[in-house]
Protein: DUF1232 domain-containing protein
Organism: Fictibacillus nanhaiensis
Amino acid sequence: MSTLNQLRNYAQKLKKDIFVLYLSYKDSRTPLVAKIVAICVVAYAFSPIDLIPDFIPILGYLDDLILVPLGISLALKLIPDYIIDENRTMAEHIQKNGKPKNWFVGILFIIIWILFAVWIGKLLFPLFS
C-alpha cells in the first residue's frame, strides 16, 4: 500500500473517531474525565476556526497534525471499549450527513485573537493607549 493511501486511510479513521467521540461524550455511561477530554477534542475539531490559523506557515497545521490526533487517541483510551463499539455504527451515519459546527468555540477563538491583537497593539503603540 502506498504512503498516500496509508495517509488517506488514517485521515478517514481520525474523522470517524471524532464522530465516535461526539457520540460518546453524550453517552451517560462515559466516565466524567473521558467526557471532559472528549468534549474538548470534539469542540476543537468541530470549531470552524483554529486556535492557530492555517495560513501561519508550519504552525498553522501543527494543531491539525499533532494536537487533534493526540487528543482523539487520549479520549478513546479513556472511554470503555463497549461504548466506542456501539458508537462506531452511529458515527458512520452522522458522517454521511455532515459534521455539526461548534460556533461557541469558534467565537471563543475569535475573542482570543482580538485580545491578542489589542495586547500587541498596546506593546507596539504605547502612546495611543
Notes: Residues 3-26 form the longest helix (24 residues). Helices lie at 3-26, 32-46, 59-78, 81-97, 103-124.
